[in-house]
Design goal:
The protein has 310 residues and is α/β, with parallel strands linked by helices. The chain contains 7 helices and 8 strands; from the N terminus they run βββααβαβαβααββα. It has helices spanning 88-94, 99-120, 139-163, 178-191, 207-223, 234-240, 288-299, and strands at 9-10, 49-50, 80-84, 124-131, 166-170, 198-205, 253-256, 275-278. A 6-stranded parallel beta sheet has the order 5-6-4-3-7-8, sandwiched between helices. A two-stranded parallel ribbon has the order 1-2. Helix 5 (207-223) packs across helix 6.
Length: 310
C-alpha cells in the first residue's frame, strides 16, 4: 500500500504532492521547482530528494479526459477492475530511501489509475489499501499509514465530488483510528449520490474476513428465524459480502503488481471467474503504459465462466 512526508524536491520534474485544492480526478502538471505545501503538513519538517528517474512523471490537462488508446476497445472494457498495489517498500529500498517514500510514490500511481478509469468508462475500481495481515507490520509504519490514508481520503472527497466519483469502503473499519473512521464515513456520505466511477477502498480487509463476516451475518439471520439453513446458497452469501455495495461486485479484471503470483487474501470469493494479470513492475512504476497492457490482455481473452465458448 502507501507512505512518506512532504513537498518532495525533484530535479527536472513533477509535483508529487501539490496542495489538495490543485488536484482533479487527478491530473498533475510538471514544474521546475516546488513551492506548494505538503499534502501531509505534519511531516513538513522532513525532506527527501528524489531524482526524476526515480519517479513516474504524471502529467496531463486539468480539463480534458485521457483519450482511449487505439489498442483498446470501449465495448470490451471491463466494468470492474481490482488492483493489488504491491511493491512500494521494495521500490524505496532499491533507491536507498525509507519505505514511506515508496508509499507516497504509490499514492501518485493510484491517482493516475483513478484518472484513467474515470476517462475510459470503467464503472468500478477496487483498490487494496491495507490488508488485515498488514496490522502485523511495525507500529511506526502502521501509524504513518493511518495518517496517510486519512489525508488521501480527504483529497479523494474533493476529487470525487468534482469528477462524480462515488467512494465506498470495505473491511473491518472498527480497527481503524477514530479520526479515520470519521473521514471514511464523511467520504461515503458526501459522495453517495455521485454516479460516475465507483471507487471501492479495501482497508483492514481480507478475503477470508469477508467470507467469515458474511457467514456470521447469515448465522444471525438463522438465529432470528429470518432464513432457514436450507436457504443458504451462493446468492445468499454474495448478498452478505462487503462488495454488495456495488452493482458489479465481482471484478472482471484483477491486476497485481511487483511480480508476485498470488492473491494474498484479496477478494477470494469475488475473484472466482476474474481474469488475472500479474505485472512485474513495482506499484510506483505502474502507469498508463502498464495499465493499457493489462486492459489489452483482458480484451484478448475469451471468458467462459465454466462453460464452453461457442
Amino acid at each position: 500500500m502507501f507512505l512518506h512526508r512532504l513537498p518532495i524536491l525533484v530535479e527536472n520534474t513533477v509535483t508529487l504532492f501539490p496542495h489538495p485544492h490543485s488536484l482533479t480526478c487527478p491530473r498533475y502538471q510538471t514544474h521546475r521547482r516546488f513551492s506548494s505545501p505538503s499534502l501531509f503538513p505534519s511531516f513538513q519538517s522532513r525532506r527527501t530528494v528524489l531524482h526524476s528517474r526515480d519517479v513516474a512523471v504524471v502529467s496531463g490537462s486539468l480539463a480534458e479526459p485521457e483519450p482511449l488508446p487505439p489498442e483498446l476497445r470501449s465495448d470490451l472494457m471491463p466494468k470492474h477492475v481490482a488492483v493489488s498495489m504491491d511493491g512500494n517498500r521494495r521500490w524505496a529500498k532499491m533507491r536507498g530511501l525509507p519505505p514511506s517514500t515508496g508509499h507516497e510514490a504509490g499514492v501518485q500511481s493510484m491517482m493516475k489509475i483513478i484518472d484513467l478509469c474515470c476517462s475510459w468508462g470503467i464503472k468500478v475500481l477496487t483498490l487494496f489499501w491495507f490488508s488485515c495481515d498488514n496490522w502485523k507490520r511495525a507500529k511506526v509504519e502502521v501509524d504513518f499509514l493511518m495518517q496517510l490514508f486519512e489525508s488521501t481520503t480527504n483529497t479523494l472527497i474533493e476529487t470525487g465530488n468534482r469528477e462524480g466519483i462515488k467512494i465506498s469502503v470495505i473491511g473491518d473499519t472498527s480497527k481503524l483510528p477514530l479520526s479515520l473512521q470519521r473521514m471514511i464515513s464523511n467520504a461515503e456520505e458526501r459522495t453517495k449520490q455521485n454516479c460516475g466511477l465507483q471507487l471501492i477502498i479495501a482497508i483492514s480487509y481480507s478475503g477470508k474476513y469477508d467470507v467469515v463476516q458474511a457467514c456470521k451475518a447469515i448465522a444471525g439471520k438463522i438465529k432470528d428465524g429470518v432464513v432457514e439453513v436450507e436457504d443458504i446458497n451462493e446468492s445468499l452469501i454474495e448478498q452478505e459480502l462487503e462488495t454488495k455495495c456495488s452493482e458489479f461486485p465481482n471484478p472482471d479484471l484483477m491486476i497485481r503488481t511487483s511480480g508476485e503470483l498470488r492473491l494474498s487474501n484479496f477478494l477470494l470469493w469475488q475473484l472466482a471467474f476474474t481474469e488475472l494479470v500479474f505485472d512485474p513492475h513495482l506499484w510506483p512504476d505502474f502507469g498508463k503504459k502498464q495499465f493499457v497492457e493489462a486492459l489489452a490482455a483482458f480484451q484478448q481473452r475469451q471468458r467462459r465462466f465454466g462453460g464452453q465458448h461457442s
